[in-house]
Amino acid sequence: MHFSDLNAEAEDSDHSAAERRRAASRSTWVSVLVNLVLTVLQITAGVLARSQGLVADGIHSLSDLVADFVVLLANRHSSKDADEDHPYGHQRFETAASLVLGGLLLAVGLGMVWSAFLKLQQPELVPSVGLAALWVAGGALVAKELLFRYMLAVAKRVKSSMLVANAWHARSDAASSLVVGIGIIGNLMGYPILDPIAALVVGCMVSKMGWEFGWDAMHDLMDRAVDEQEVAAIRATLAGTPGVSGVHDIRTRKMGDMIVVDAHIEVDATLTVEAGHDIAVEARHRVLQRHRVLNLMTHVDPWRRPDLDHAPATAVQSG
């Protein structure tokens, strides 16, 4: 699941902005509670059991706590109404939050890689870990996987890319806990070096995910268009509006989880300006109702019958 997966589900969203905000707040507070408990357990058990991998995983959970509060902050600010300085609203605050999440993951991942690398420089100093570390790693794995599935279900239901980012942040924790568990098992079997290797792998995983989220959010902030499937769906809605004879030059740009659209529609050239305007208003209403479009700017172009469009000038005049 990635941001693009939400685009395929664009039509007929039944969830208002208020519902999306409530869902985001509720799921994020659940994540806060889970990550708070895991952070304390993992770091405490990691220190007492001498497991660098478990401590790294606990730091990852701690980064989730920070990320959760970033999401809560973004959810609050992105819900503000449009104002004079932000005529399209504040939806891009969500994209900015996703960029922060990506940067946070990247920084944490690189720090974990560096710490594990230093430990691997002196493998003879790597201690044997206690059995308690394995139990904590296993419990963390189950908790994080359940949290991921819950948050992703909420994100897909309300179509929020910011919540998708935070859900996959939880999944990265589940994957890291699995790697840490394997490293701890290896350490207990007499291969102590596997514990810092597990920490190194976790750091690489976190860094990769952080880069991907940050890169994706940066492109959205640069007015990236939505995918062709969603553009085609919007085009079909416009073309299906009574009175619209053609559609061309559709341009889109993402505004948080919403879309701003510019489109040219063609109407009968013999209609009055008022009639053409009414058709454009109806086309806009249909698009806003059926798609996650924040605003649609329509340009009305004249359309003539094909026989008149391509007839010689003298024939048109004589008619």
TrEMBL record:
<protein>
    <submittedName>
        <fullName>Cation diffusion facilitator family transporter</fullName>
    </submittedName>
</protein>
<dbReference type="GO" id="GO:0008324">
    <property type="term" value="F:monoatomic cation transmembrane transporter activity"/>
</dbReference>
<dbReference type="InterPro" id="IPR027470">
    <property type="entry name" value="Cation_efflux_CTD"/>
</dbReference>
<feature type="transmembrane region" description="Helical">
    <location>
        <begin position="129"/>
        <end position="152"/>
    </location>
</feature>
<dbReference type="InterPro" id="IPR058533">
    <property type="entry name" value="Cation_efflux_TM"/>
</dbReference>
<feature type="transmembrane region" description="Helical">
    <location>
        <begin position="29"/>
        <end position="48"/>
    </location>
</feature>
<keyword id="KW-0812">Transmembrane</keyword>
<dbReference type="InterPro" id="IPR050291">
    <property type="entry name" value="CDF_Transporter"/>
</dbReference>
<feature type="domain" description="Cation efflux protein transmembrane">
    <location>
        <begin position="29"/>
        <end position="222"/>
    </location>
</feature>
<dbReference type="GO" id="GO:0016020">
    <property type="term" value="C:membrane"/>
</dbReference>
<keyword id="KW-0813">Transport</keyword>
<keyword id="KW-1133">Transmembrane helix</keyword>
<dbReference type="InterPro" id="IPR036837">
    <property type="entry name" value="Cation_efflux_CTD_sf"/>
</dbReference>
<dbReference type="Pfam" id="PF16916">
    <property type="entry name" value="ZT_dimer"/>
</dbReference>
<dbReference type="InterPro" id="IPR002524">
    <property type="entry name" value="Cation_efflux"/>
</dbReference>
<comment type="similarity">
    <text>Belongs to the cation diffusion facilitator (CDF) transporter (TC 2.A.4) family.</text>
</comment>
<feature type="transmembrane region" description="Helical">
    <location>
        <begin position="95"/>
        <end position="117"/>
    </location>
</feature>
<feature type="domain" description="Cation efflux protein cytoplasmic">
    <location>
        <begin position="227"/>
        <end position="302"/>
    </location>
</feature>
<dbReference type="InterPro" id="IPR027469">
    <property type="entry name" value="Cation_efflux_TMD_sf"/>
</dbReference>
<dbReference type="Pfam" id="PF01545">
    <property type="entry name" value="Cation_efflux"/>
</dbReference>
<keyword id="KW-0472">Membrane</keyword>
